[in-house]
Every structure is written in structure tokens, then in C-alpha cells.
Amino acid sequence: MDKQRDFVLRTIEERGVKFIRLWFTDVIGTLKSVAIAPAEVEGAFAEGLGFDGSAIEGLTRSYESDLLAHPDPTTFQTLPWRGEIDPTARMFCDITTPDGQPAVADPRHVLKRSLARAADAGFTFYTHPEIEFYLLKSSAYGPDGPEPVDSAGYFDNVPGGTAHDFRRRSVRMLEDLGISVEFSHHEGGPGQNEIDLRYADALATADNIMTFRTVVKEVAIEQGVYATFMPKPLSGKPGSGMHTHMSLFEGDQNAFYEEGGQYQLSKVGRHFIAGLLRHANEISAVTNQFVNSYKRLWGGDEAPSFICWGHNNRSALVRVPMYKPNKGQSSRVEYRALDSAANPYLAYALLLAAGMKGIEEEYDLPPEAEDNVWSLTDGERRALGYAPLPASLDVALEYMEESELVAETLGEQVFNYVLLNKRREWQEYRSQVTPYELKSNLEML
Q1: The architecture CATH gives domain 1-103
Q2: The pLDDT of residue 212 is above 50
Q3: Which is deepest, 46, 57, 169, 307, by most CB within 10 Å?
Q4: Cα distances (angstroms) measured from residue 195 to each of 8, 128, 172
């Protein structure tokens, strides 16, 4: 760590970095940033930077508000969009109390705790997210809703289109920040795009997702458009998911791989999927944390609505992708409910905890879904045991409130804060009179 710190201090000097932004997130997953001068960095490494935690969503109770942000030198990167005029860098921070204890409500620490528990069982957790978002002409919207930048569809090549330049610029910027991109393409909705990040350990992935959202927003502003990670911004069009491929490794061996197993999937992999399925409802209020998230889950267009798994079945909640012959290391499972607006630290902590519970308790994996789950009748789905995911944030919160797994993984303070914050959101949503009701009822009743 001392070597890393020395490297950071040397790089700041050599590149003439003028500002260093210290980044962390609140419980909802909003990025927070405080800029310090180069002269302050050594002190921030040694003692942390003090701030009032009670002013940040869910980070402390008001009577214990003093917190310290400790920059993690391994996350140091210069920010390419700041240019050469005032070179600026960033580091992610771990949050502690003044006596050096990890802040219980720091989302990064929640994920670190989950990863440490998996490490005690001999596992490293790797993730690979496919992040979808919409490009709109502006953040303003008229009676027909937001206006996308194009009317293209899945994998479309749009000559001279905004999205081409946008993706090229974004991918270059992400690579400059040390974030490897695997694919980028136009998605199914008008103005919808997807950029997939390469496999990394879950903590690096969560940091990368927070950086990714910032890069995408910055490039959009630069190009005179607006980017949104809202789960379902356009009625009748696909929502934006963050399908995540996951695997556990024991040393350099993929613990999900078993030669000759069905779909090359090991017993560990099967138990992990069973854990994801059994706890899917309990973790929904975190993996799908907004009222709008449930418009995506129940709006069709390949979003999963029912709890089941399948091999290469895009209507299932958990998919086991096609395996590549002689490529055991690529065995993985894909969780398809997660949306692009989730707090990645809390979401990955819970997905890992659910899978690990399945392994520890040796949950049985139910039979796979071979049909298109959406085309079955309710009766057929019931007979096959495919329970629905929560249909609203309200129902998701009821499941979460009863969940020992979620309470234990998040810790008491984060658990209580998420429930409190999301109940407030549901109350505000429920108490409004919507244009739909006025249009349907005002004249008729």
C-alpha cells in the first residue's frame, strides 16, 4: 500500500495534477465527490479527510455525524474529460469513524464484508455487467415523454448517428481510465445503448460501474445530449437492465465448471443458482430499488418477471449461457433482474450472499425452464413452480423486511435506512394523482 501511495504522489507531481477528487457513494448509490489540492493528499492518506456524514443520504445517524474518507490509492486515475487545462484525478474512498472503525453504512464496506466472507470459504467473486442506458435529446420532456436521439434498434448501424460518436468517445475514455470494455452496441429501444465491461473482481466492478455512469453522463453533456440510467424511461419500449455474469473462483480454478456436468456446471454452480432463486424476492428492493424499476420488470421486452433458471433462456431470471468447448474458465451464470440504477456495491453484496447461502445450505436446484416463460399461462407457470418477482416496490419491501439474509448482509443501519427511504418513495408515488387517472376518469366519473 505504501508503494501505491508513493506512486500516486509521484504521478500527481509528474503530471501536474491540480485537483484530486475523492469519491464515495451514499446508500442509494449516488456518487459523492470532494476535491482536494495536491498538497492535501499525503494527509488524506495518513489521517483521512473529515466530513459531516449526517448530510449524506443514510450514511450516519445525526448524533454520530463525524466521518473520515480514506482514499484507496489502488483506484487512482486521472479524469480524461477534465483535459490538460486543470488536470484532475480521482480515488475511491473507504469511510471510517474517527476511531478508525469502518463506517457501518459505507456501501463499499458492505461489499467488502460480503467478499471477505466468501474468501473465508475459499472463493473470489468475479462479475461482468452489461450496462444499458438511453440517450435523449435533453432531460426535458413533453406530453409524449422524453425524446430519444434516434429511432434505431438492436445492433443497428446508424451512419453519422449520435450514438456511434458517443460510444466511441465513451469507450476510449473508459479505456483511458483503465476500465476494459468488451462490447458496445445500439440496444433494442430508440436511443438505447449498451456497453459491457470486462470481467473483474466484484469490488473493482462496482467501482468501475460508478465511474462508468459518470463517464457516460460527461460524454453526453459534451455531445449536447442527455444520458439516463432510469430503468424504464419510455413507455412501451425496453427498459435498461444491468445483466450481470457471475462466477466464483477457487484460486485460479472456476468453481462453477465441471467437465461432463450438465451445461458444464458444477455442484457449487447449481447451489449458487438455487440461492439466487430462493432469495430473489428478498433482494429485489436493492437490485431494483425504484418505483420505476418494476415498470421494467413487468413491462415485457426481455425483462424477467418470474423466478426460474434456464440454459440460454432469455425469459428466465437466471440464465446459464452457452459454454465454450475447452473453455472451463468461462462457466458462469447471468442474473437478469438487476437494473442500471442499482447501487452496485449493495446489489453485488446481496447477490453473492444469496449464492453463498445456496452453497452453504446445499439448496436443491429446481428443474430448468425450457419454454418462453412469458408465453405460458398463469396456471402453467404455477404448475411449474415459477413464482413471480415482486410487482411493485411496496411488495419488494415487504419481502425485504422479513429477510434475515438481507439484514445480516447489509447490516442493521443500511437495512433500516433502505426500508425507510424506499417506503417514503412508495408513499410519495402512491399519493399522487397521475395523468393516466385524469385521462381515464375525470370526464367519465
Answers
A1: Roll (3.10)
A2: yes
A3: 307
A4: 29, 11, 12
